[in-house]
Automatic annotation (TrEMBL):
A biological-process GO annotation: glycolytic process
Species assigned in the record: Sulfoacidibacillus thermotolerans
Subcellular location field: Cytoplasm
Enzyme class: isomerase
Family: Belongs to the GPI family.
Name this protein carries in UniProt: Glucose-6-phosphate isomerase
Gene that this polypeptide is encoded by: pgi
Record-listed E.C. numbers: 5.3.1.9
Catalytic activity: alpha-D-glucose 6-phosphate = beta-D-fructose 6-phosphate
GO MF terms, alphabetically ordered: carbohydrate derivative binding; glucose-6-phosphate isomerase activity; monosaccharide binding
Role of this protein: Catalyzes the reversible isomerization of glucose-6-phosphate to fructose-6-phosphate.
InterPro entries noted in UniProt: G6P_Isomerase (IPR001672), Phosphoglucose_isomerase_CS (IPR018189), SIS_dom_sf (IPR046348), SIS_PGI_1 (IPR035476), SIS_PGI_2 (IPR035482)
HAMAP family named among the record's database cross-references: G6P_isomerase
Phylogenetic placement of the source organism: Bacteria, Bacillati, Bacillota, Bacilli, Bacillales
Active site (record annotation): E286 (proton donor), K421
Amino acid sequence: MIRLVEWTQSFVAPEEIELQQPFVETAHRLLEQRSGAGHEFLGWMDLPSSFDPIELQRIKEAGQNIAKQANLLVVIGIGGSYLGARAALHMLQHSFHDLLPREQRPLQVVFAGHQMSATYLAELLELLDHYEVAVNVISKSGTTTEPALAFRTLKQYMEQRYGIQGAAQRIYATTDAKRGALRKLANEAGYETFVIPDDVGGRFSVLTPVGLLPLAAAGIDVDALLQGAKRAQSELRESDVRKNPAYTYAALRQILRAKGKAIELFVTYEPALHYVGEWWKQLFGESEGKDGKGLYPASADFSTDLHSLGQFVQDGARTLFETVIKVKNPRRSLQIEEVADDLDGLNYLAGRPLQQVNDTALEATMLAHQTGGVPTILLELDDMSAASLGYLFYFFEKAVAVSAYLQGVNPFDQPGVEMYKSNMFALLGKPGYENQRERLATMAKVRES
Ligand SMILES: O=P(O)(O)OC[C@H]1O[C@](O)(CO)[C@@H](O)[C@@H]1O
Protein backbone atom coordinates (compact mmCIF):
# COMPACT_ATOMS: atom_id res chain seq x y z
CA MET A 1 0.00 0.00 0.00
CA ILE A 2 3.06 2.19 0.36
CA ARG A 3 6.04 1.56 -1.88
CA LEU A 4 9.41 3.21 -1.67
CA VAL A 5 9.78 3.77 -5.38
CA GLU A 6 13.17 5.45 -5.57
CA TRP A 7 15.55 7.88 -4.00
CA THR A 8 18.27 10.07 -5.48
CA GLN A 9 21.15 7.66 -5.77
CA SER A 10 23.65 10.36 -6.66
CA PHE A 11 23.25 11.48 -3.02
CA VAL A 12 22.95 8.06 -1.36
CA ALA A 13 24.33 4.99 -3.09
CA PRO A 14 22.58 1.64 -2.45
CA GLU A 15 25.75 0.35 -0.77
CA GLU A 16 25.46 3.10 1.83
CA ILE A 17 22.04 1.75 2.77
CA GLU A 18 23.45 -1.76 3.03
CA LEU A 19 26.17 -0.49 5.37
CA GLN A 20 23.38 0.53 7.74
CA GLN A 21 22.21 -3.06 8.12
CA PRO A 22 24.00 -3.84 11.44
CA PHE A 23 22.60 -0.67 13.00
CA VAL A 24 19.13 -1.28 11.60
CA GLU A 25 19.32 -4.84 12.89
CA THR A 26 20.08 -3.53 16.38
CA ALA A 27 17.26 -0.98 16.22
CA HIS A 28 14.90 -3.68 14.95
CA ARG A 29 15.88 -5.96 17.83
CA LEU A 30 15.39 -3.19 20.37
CA LEU A 31 11.86 -2.77 19.07
CA GLU A 32 10.91 -6.41 18.65
CA GLN A 33 12.41 -7.49 21.97
CA ARG A 34 11.01 -4.41 23.64
CA SER A 35 14.31 -3.59 25.25
CA GLY A 36 15.17 -0.13 23.85
CA ALA A 37 14.71 3.30 25.42
CA GLY A 38 11.02 4.02 25.89
CA HIS A 39 10.07 0.33 25.48
CA GLU A 40 7.16 0.88 27.86
CA PHE A 41 5.45 2.82 25.03
CA LEU A 42 5.37 0.14 22.35
CA GLY A 43 1.65 -0.62 22.57
CA TRP A 44 1.10 0.93 19.10
CA MET A 45 3.07 -1.91 17.50
CA ASP A 46 0.37 -4.52 18.13
CA LEU A 47 -2.72 -2.31 18.10
CA PRO A 48 -3.91 -3.26 14.59
CA SER A 49 -3.79 -6.99 15.24
CA SER A 50 -4.82 -7.02 18.87
CA PHE A 51 -7.56 -4.42 19.06
CA ASP A 52 -10.20 -5.73 21.46
CA PRO A 53 -13.22 -6.52 19.21
CA ILE A 54 -15.68 -5.68 22.00
CA GLU A 55 -14.07 -2.29 22.51
CA LEU A 56 -14.07 -1.69 18.77
CA GLN A 57 -17.76 -2.51 18.67
CA ARG A 58 -18.39 -0.06 21.53
CA ILE A 59 -16.51 2.65 19.60
CA LYS A 60 -18.60 2.01 16.49
CA GLU A 61 -21.83 2.06 18.48
CA ALA A 62 -20.86 5.29 20.21
CA GLY A 63 -20.02 6.72 16.77
CA GLN A 64 -23.49 5.76 15.51
CA ASN A 65 -25.03 7.21 18.62
CA ILE A 66 -23.23 10.52 18.11
CA ALA A 67 -24.41 10.61 14.51
CA LYS A 68 -28.01 10.11 15.72
CA GLN A 69 -27.83 12.70 18.50
CA ALA A 70 -25.99 15.41 16.66
CA ASN A 71 -25.20 16.97 13.32
CA LEU A 72 -22.10 18.67 14.68
CA LEU A 73 -19.36 16.92 16.63
CA VAL A 74 -16.82 19.14 18.35
CA VAL A 75 -13.60 17.19 18.84
CA ILE A 76 -11.43 18.75 21.52
CA GLY A 77 -7.75 17.79 21.60
CA ILE A 78 -4.25 18.86 20.63
CA GLY A 79 -1.16 17.20 19.16
CA GLY A 80 -1.58 13.45 19.05
CA SER A 81 -5.08 13.82 20.45
CA TYR A 82 -6.09 15.86 17.41
CA LEU A 83 -3.94 15.43 14.33
CA GLY A 84 -4.66 11.79 13.49
CA ALA A 85 -8.42 12.23 13.24
CA ARG A 86 -7.99 15.51 11.42
CA ALA A 87 -5.57 13.94 8.92
CA ALA A 88 -7.91 11.01 8.30
CA LEU A 89 -11.03 13.13 7.85
CA HIS A 90 -9.25 15.55 5.56
CA MET A 91 -7.92 12.75 3.40
CA LEU A 92 -10.93 10.45 3.33
CA GLN A 93 -13.84 12.86 3.12
CA HIS A 94 -14.92 14.79 0.04
CA SER A 95 -12.55 17.71 -0.65
CA PHE A 96 -15.44 20.12 -0.12
CA HIS A 97 -17.20 18.21 2.60
CA ASP A 98 -18.36 21.40 4.32
CA LEU A 99 -20.09 22.54 1.13
CA LEU A 100 -21.96 19.32 0.45
CA PRO A 101 -25.76 19.49 0.73
CA ARG A 102 -26.83 18.82 4.32
CA GLU A 103 -28.31 15.38 3.55
CA GLN A 104 -24.94 14.20 2.19
CA ARG A 105 -23.07 15.16 5.34
CA PRO A 106 -25.25 14.10 8.23
CA LEU A 107 -22.45 14.81 10.71
CA GLN A 108 -20.02 17.69 10.54
CA VAL A 109 -16.83 17.44 12.62
CA VAL A 110 -15.05 20.55 13.86
CA PHE A 111 -11.99 20.79 16.06
CA ALA A 112 -11.31 22.85 19.15
CA GLY A 113 -8.68 22.89 21.86
CA HIS A 114 -5.80 22.65 19.39
CA GLN A 115 -4.87 26.28 20.19
CA MET A 116 -5.96 28.99 22.63
CA SER A 117 -7.40 31.56 20.25
CA ALA A 118 -10.33 33.38 21.82
CA THR A 119 -11.50 34.41 18.36
CA TYR A 120 -11.64 30.82 17.16
CA LEU A 121 -13.49 29.53 20.21
CA ALA A 122 -15.88 32.47 20.50
CA GLU A 123 -16.80 32.24 16.81
CA LEU A 124 -17.36 28.50 17.15
CA LEU A 125 -19.65 29.11 20.14
CA GLU A 126 -21.63 31.62 18.13
CA LEU A 127 -22.54 28.92 15.62
CA LEU A 128 -23.37 26.04 17.92
CA ASP A 129 -27.03 26.99 18.42
CA HIS A 130 -27.63 26.26 14.73
CA TYR A 131 -26.71 22.62 15.24
CA GLU A 132 -27.42 19.63 17.41
CA VAL A 133 -24.09 19.24 19.17
CA ALA A 134 -22.03 16.42 20.65
CA VAL A 135 -18.52 16.72 22.09
CA ASN A 136 -15.61 14.31 22.15
CA VAL A 137 -12.95 15.59 24.53
CA ILE A 138 -9.62 13.82 24.11
CA SER A 139 -6.58 14.14 26.34
CA LYS A 140 -4.27 11.36 27.40
CA SER A 141 -2.80 13.33 30.28
CA GLY A 142 -6.03 15.14 31.00
CA THR A 143 -4.01 18.18 32.00
CA THR A 144 -3.07 19.86 28.73
CA THR A 145 -4.08 23.51 28.99
CA GLU A 146 -5.42 24.09 25.48
CA PRO A 147 -8.03 21.28 25.39
CA ALA A 148 -8.82 21.69 29.09
CA LEU A 149 -9.70 25.36 28.57
CA ALA A 150 -11.75 24.63 25.46
CA PHE A 151 -13.58 21.85 27.25
CA ARG A 152 -14.37 24.07 30.25
CA THR A 153 -16.10 26.47 27.82
CA LEU A 154 -17.85 23.78 25.77
CA LYS A 155 -19.00 21.89 28.86
CA GLN A 156 -20.65 25.02 30.18
CA TYR A 157 -22.34 25.61 26.83
CA MET A 158 -23.58 22.01 26.66
CA GLU A 159 -24.92 22.08 30.23
CA GLN A 160 -26.71 25.38 29.71
CA ARG A 161 -28.26 24.16 26.50
CA TYR A 162 -29.07 20.50 27.25
CA GLY A 163 -29.10 20.47 31.08
CA ILE A 164 -26.52 18.60 33.15
CA GLN A 165 -27.97 15.14 32.41
CA GLY A 166 -28.58 15.87 28.75
CA ALA A 167 -25.07 17.23 28.31
CA ALA A 168 -23.58 14.16 29.96
CA GLN A 169 -25.25 12.02 27.31
CA ARG A 170 -23.70 14.07 24.53
CA ILE A 171 -20.17 14.33 25.90
CA TYR A 172 -17.69 11.52 25.25
CA ALA A 173 -14.31 11.52 26.95
CA THR A 174 -11.22 9.74 25.65
CA THR A 175 -8.47 9.66 28.24
CA ASP A 176 -6.26 7.64 30.56
CA ALA A 177 -7.80 4.57 32.22
CA LYS A 178 -7.26 5.85 35.75
CA ARG A 179 -5.25 9.03 36.04
CA GLY A 180 -5.71 12.70 35.23
CA ALA A 181 -8.20 15.50 35.66
CA LEU A 182 -10.30 14.46 32.67
CA ARG A 183 -10.71 10.89 33.93
CA LYS A 184 -11.89 12.22 37.30
CA LEU A 185 -14.24 14.73 35.75
CA ALA A 186 -15.67 12.20 33.29
CA ASN A 187 -16.29 9.63 36.02
CA GLU A 188 -18.01 12.18 38.20
CA ALA A 189 -20.15 13.56 35.38
CA GLY A 190 -21.04 10.11 34.06
CA TYR A 191 -19.74 10.57 30.51
CA GLU A 192 -19.17 7.57 28.31
CA THR A 193 -15.40 7.13 28.32
CA PHE A 194 -12.80 5.51 26.12
CA VAL A 195 -9.33 4.56 27.18
CA ILE A 196 -5.99 5.54 25.68
CA PRO A 197 -3.75 2.64 26.66
CA ASP A 198 -0.86 3.43 29.02
CA ASP A 199 1.64 1.99 26.57
CA VAL A 200 0.61 4.21 23.63
CA GLY A 201 1.98 7.76 23.50
CA GLY A 202 -0.12 10.65 22.14
CA ARG A 203 1.48 10.86 18.69
CA PHE A 204 1.15 7.09 18.23
CA SER A 205 -2.49 7.02 19.28
CA VAL A 206 -4.42 7.51 16.04
CA LEU A 207 -5.45 3.84 15.93
CA THR A 208 -6.85 3.93 19.47
CA PRO A 209 -10.24 5.49 20.38
CA VAL A 210 -8.44 8.86 20.03
CA GLY A 211 -8.70 8.60 16.27
CA LEU A 212 -11.30 5.89 15.88
CA LEU A 213 -14.23 7.45 17.75
CA PRO A 214 -14.44 10.73 15.80
CA LEU A 215 -13.84 8.80 12.59
CA ALA A 216 -16.55 6.25 13.38
CA ALA A 217 -18.95 9.11 14.16
CA ALA A 218 -18.15 10.68 10.80
CA GLY A 219 -18.96 7.41 9.04
CA ILE A 220 -15.37 6.48 8.16
CA ASP A 221 -14.72 2.77 7.78
CA VAL A 222 -12.57 2.21 10.87
CA ASP A 223 -12.39 -1.54 10.19
CA ALA A 224 -10.69 -0.81 6.87
CA LEU A 225 -8.33 1.64 8.56
CA LEU A 226 -7.30 -1.01 11.08
CA GLN A 227 -7.07 -3.68 8.35
CA GLY A 228 -4.63 -1.52 6.39
CA ALA A 229 -2.54 -0.98 9.51
CA LYS A 230 -2.67 -4.70 10.23
CA ARG A 231 -1.31 -5.43 6.78
CA ALA A 232 1.52 -2.99 7.44
CA GLN A 233 2.18 -4.64 10.79
CA SER A 234 2.67 -8.01 9.11
CA GLU A 235 4.54 -6.73 6.01
CA LEU A 236 6.97 -4.43 7.82
CA ARG A 237 8.40 -7.07 10.15
CA GLU A 238 11.48 -7.86 8.05
CA SER A 239 14.76 -6.74 9.61
CA ASP A 240 16.59 -6.46 6.28
CA VAL A 241 17.00 -2.78 5.45
CA ARG A 242 16.72 -3.50 1.71
CA LYS A 243 13.49 -5.46 2.06
CA ASN A 244 11.63 -3.41 4.64
CA PRO A 245 10.67 -0.06 3.04
CA ALA A 246 10.03 1.55 6.43
CA TYR A 247 13.60 0.72 7.40
CA THR A 248 15.05 1.78 4.05
CA TYR A 249 13.31 5.11 4.55
CA ALA A 250 14.62 5.36 8.14
CA ALA A 251 18.19 4.56 7.01
CA LEU A 252 18.00 7.05 4.12
CA ARG A 253 16.91 9.83 6.44
CA GLN A 254 19.76 9.21 8.83
CA ILE A 255 22.33 9.00 6.02
CA LEU A 256 21.08 12.29 4.62
CA ARG A 257 21.21 13.83 8.09
CA ALA A 258 24.82 12.70 8.45
CA LYS A 259 25.53 14.39 5.10
CA GLY A 260 24.36 17.73 6.44
CA LYS A 261 20.71 17.74 5.41
CA ALA A 262 18.98 19.24 8.43
CA ILE A 263 15.43 19.60 7.07
CA GLU A 264 13.08 17.01 5.65
CA LEU A 265 10.28 18.43 3.55
CA PHE A 266 7.22 16.18 3.39
CA VAL A 267 5.65 16.88 0.01
CA THR A 268 2.25 15.91 -1.29
CA TYR A 269 0.57 16.63 -4.60
CA GLU A 270 -2.92 15.96 -3.22
CA PRO A 271 -4.41 18.69 -1.01
CA ALA A 272 -6.34 15.95 0.78
CA LEU A 273 -3.05 14.85 2.31
CA HIS A 274 -2.28 18.25 3.84
CA TYR A 275 -3.08 17.13 7.39
CA VAL A 276 -1.25 13.84 6.92
CA GLY A 277 1.77 16.15 6.64
CA GLU A 278 0.76 17.88 9.90
CA TRP A 279 0.40 14.50 11.66
CA TRP A 280 3.75 13.36 10.24
CA LYS A 281 5.45 16.53 11.54
CA GLN A 282 4.43 15.84 15.11
CA LEU A 283 5.36 12.16 14.83
CA PHE A 284 8.86 12.89 13.59
CA GLY A 285 9.48 16.17 15.38
CA GLU A 286 8.58 14.94 18.86
CA SER A 287 10.17 11.53 18.36
CA GLU A 288 13.54 12.66 17.01
CA GLY A 289 14.11 16.29 17.89
CA LYS A 290 16.03 15.90 21.11
CA ASP A 291 19.52 15.86 22.63
CA GLY A 292 20.54 18.50 20.09
CA LYS A 293 19.79 16.12 17.21
CA GLY A 294 17.10 15.43 14.64
CA LEU A 295 15.84 16.44 11.24
CA TYR A 296 13.49 19.41 11.23
CA PRO A 297 10.22 18.08 9.77
CA ALA A 298 8.55 20.53 7.43
CA SER A 299 5.75 19.99 4.93
CA ALA A 300 4.56 21.51 1.69
CA ASP A 301 1.64 21.09 -0.71
CA PHE A 302 2.85 21.03 -4.30
CA SER A 303 2.32 22.36 -6.84
CA THR A 304 0.69 25.18 -4.76
CA ASP A 305 3.79 25.80 -2.67
CA LEU A 306 6.12 25.60 -5.64
CA HIS A 307 4.80 29.09 -6.31
CA SER A 308 5.80 30.29 -2.85
CA LEU A 309 8.51 28.01 -1.41
CA GLY A 310 9.72 26.64 -4.75
CA GLN A 311 12.42 29.29 -5.13
CA PHE A 312 13.96 28.40 -1.78
CA VAL A 313 13.79 24.67 -2.36
CA GLN A 314 15.43 24.99 -5.76
CA ASP A 315 18.00 27.58 -4.93
CA GLY A 316 18.23 28.47 -1.24
CA ALA A 317 20.42 27.04 1.52
CA ARG A 318 21.25 23.42 0.60
CA THR A 319 20.06 21.92 3.87
CA LEU A 320 16.93 20.18 2.58
CA PHE A 321 15.82 16.86 1.28
CA GLU A 322 12.30 15.92 0.22
CA THR A 323 10.06 12.98 0.97
CA VAL A 324 7.42 13.00 -1.72
CA ILE A 325 4.16 11.07 -1.47
CA LYS A 326 2.64 10.20 -4.79
CA VAL A 327 -0.91 8.82 -4.84
CA LYS A 328 -1.04 6.14 -7.51
CA ASN A 329 -4.82 6.03 -7.94
CA PRO A 330 -6.43 9.26 -6.73
CA ARG A 331 -10.13 9.31 -5.92
CA ARG A 332 -11.28 11.11 -9.07
CA SER A 333 -10.21 11.71 -12.63
CA LEU A 334 -10.86 14.58 -14.98
CA GLN A 335 -10.07 14.97 -18.64
CA ILE A 336 -8.74 18.15 -20.23
CA GLU A 337 -11.11 19.23 -23.00
CA GLU A 338 -10.27 20.61 -26.40
CA VAL A 339 -11.68 24.11 -27.08
CA ALA A 340 -12.16 25.64 -30.51
CA ASP A 341 -10.35 28.96 -30.09
CA ASP A 342 -7.45 27.65 -27.94
CA LEU A 343 -6.91 31.17 -26.63
CA ASP A 344 -5.17 29.82 -23.55
CA GLY A 345 -2.89 27.68 -25.71
CA LEU A 346 -3.69 24.53 -23.78
CA ASN A 347 -5.04 22.41 -26.61
CA TYR A 348 -1.75 20.54 -26.70
CA LEU A 349 -2.96 18.92 -23.46
CA ALA A 350 -6.46 18.13 -24.73
CA GLY A 351 -7.61 14.58 -24.23
CA ARG A 352 -5.14 13.94 -21.41
CA PRO A 353 -6.17 13.28 -17.82
CA LEU A 354 -5.50 16.22 -15.49
CA GLN A 355 -3.76 13.75 -13.19
CA GLN A 356 -1.14 13.17 -15.84
CA VAL A 357 -0.22 16.84 -15.64
CA ASN A 358 -0.02 16.60 -11.85
CA ASP A 359 2.22 13.53 -12.14
CA THR A 360 4.36 15.32 -14.69
CA ALA A 361 4.71 18.25 -12.31
CA LEU A 362 5.96 15.79 -9.71
CA GLU A 363 8.51 14.31 -12.08
CA ALA A 364 9.65 17.66 -13.42
CA THR A 365 10.02 19.03 -9.89
CA MET A 366 11.98 16.03 -8.68
CA LEU A 367 14.41 16.43 -11.58
CA ALA A 368 14.70 20.18 -11.02
CA HIS A 369 15.28 19.80 -7.29
CA GLN A 370 17.82 17.05 -7.77
CA THR A 371 19.71 19.32 -10.17
CA GLY A 372 19.46 22.01 -7.51
CA GLY A 373 21.06 19.76 -4.88
CA VAL A 374 17.91 18.49 -3.14
CA PRO A 375 17.73 14.71 -2.77
CA THR A 376 14.29 13.15 -3.02
CA ILE A 377 12.78 10.03 -1.52
CA LEU A 378 9.69 8.99 -3.48
CA LEU A 379 6.96 7.02 -1.71
CA GLU A 380 3.91 5.79 -3.57
CA LEU A 381 0.59 5.33 -1.82
CA ASP A 382 -1.85 3.02 -3.64
CA ASP A 383 -4.90 5.20 -3.23
CA MET A 384 -6.78 7.51 -0.89
CA SER A 385 -8.70 4.78 0.93
CA ALA A 386 -9.03 4.16 4.66
CA ALA A 387 -7.01 0.95 4.31
CA SER A 388 -4.12 2.73 2.61
CA LEU A 389 -4.18 5.45 5.24
CA GLY A 390 -4.06 2.83 8.01
CA TYR A 391 -1.05 1.34 6.26
CA LEU A 392 0.58 4.79 5.97
CA PHE A 393 0.08 5.55 9.67
CA TYR A 394 1.73 2.31 10.68
CA PHE A 395 4.51 2.68 8.09
CA PHE A 396 5.61 6.03 9.49
CA GLU A 397 5.25 4.92 13.11
CA LYS A 398 7.55 1.97 12.47
CA ALA A 399 9.95 4.11 10.44
CA VAL A 400 10.27 6.81 13.07
CA ALA A 401 10.91 4.31 15.87
CA VAL A 402 13.82 2.75 13.98
CA SER A 403 15.07 6.08 12.69
CA ALA A 404 15.19 7.54 16.21
CA TYR A 405 17.06 4.50 17.51
CA LEU A 406 19.52 4.84 14.61
CA GLN A 407 19.96 8.45 15.68
CA GLY A 408 20.53 7.38 19.28
CA VAL A 409 17.51 8.97 20.96
CA ASN A 410 14.44 7.69 22.77
CA PRO A 411 11.61 7.90 20.21
CA PHE A 412 8.87 7.82 22.81
CA ASP A 413 9.43 10.77 25.12
CA GLN A 414 9.06 14.52 24.56
CA PRO A 415 10.86 16.30 27.42
CA GLY A 416 11.35 19.44 25.35
CA VAL A 417 7.64 20.23 25.20
CA GLU A 418 7.51 20.92 28.89
CA MET A 419 9.47 24.17 29.12
CA TYR A 420 6.96 26.40 27.37
CA LYS A 421 4.20 24.88 29.45
CA SER A 422 5.87 25.49 32.79
CA ASN A 423 6.95 29.01 31.76
CA MET A 424 3.37 29.75 30.82
CA PHE A 425 2.08 28.40 34.14
CA ALA A 426 4.64 30.54 35.97
CA LEU A 427 3.67 33.68 34.04
CA LEU A 428 -0.05 33.01 34.50
CA GLY A 429 0.47 32.66 38.25
CA LYS A 430 -0.41 28.97 38.66
CA PRO A 431 0.19 27.93 42.27
CA GLY A 432 3.43 25.97 42.68
CA TYR A 433 5.33 27.90 39.99
CA GLU A 434 6.42 30.89 42.15
CA ASN A 435 10.19 30.27 41.93
CA GLN A 436 10.10 29.92 38.20
CA ARG A 437 8.11 33.12 37.97
CA GLU A 438 10.85 35.01 39.78
CA ARG A 439 13.49 33.53 37.49
CA LEU A 440 11.52 34.57 34.41
CA ALA A 441 11.04 38.08 35.83
CA THR A 442 14.84 38.37 36.24
CA MET A 443 15.34 37.17 32.66
CA ALA A 444 12.85 39.77 31.43
CA LYS A 445 14.70 42.56 33.29
CA VAL A 446 18.04 41.49 31.77
CA ARG A 447 16.42 41.48 28.33
CA GLU A 448 15.01 44.98 28.82
CA SER A 449 18.35 46.36 29.97
O1 LIG B 1 -3.43 14.13 24.96
P1 LIG B 1 -2.74 15.13 25.82
O2 LIG B 1 -2.18 14.52 27.04
O3 LIG B 1 -3.62 16.30 26.11
O4 LIG B 1 -1.48 15.67 25.04
C1 LIG B 1 -1.59 16.27 23.79
C2 LIG B 1 -0.28 16.46 23.13
O5 LIG B 1 0.55 17.32 23.89
C3 LIG B 1 1.87 16.83 23.92
O6 LIG B 1 2.11 16.30 25.17
C4 LIG B 1 2.85 17.92 23.65
O7 LIG B 1 2.47 19.11 24.22
C5 LIG B 1 1.90 15.78 22.84
O8 LIG B 1 2.90 14.85 23.03
C6 LIG B 1 0.52 15.22 22.91
O9 LIG B 1 0.20 14.53 21.73
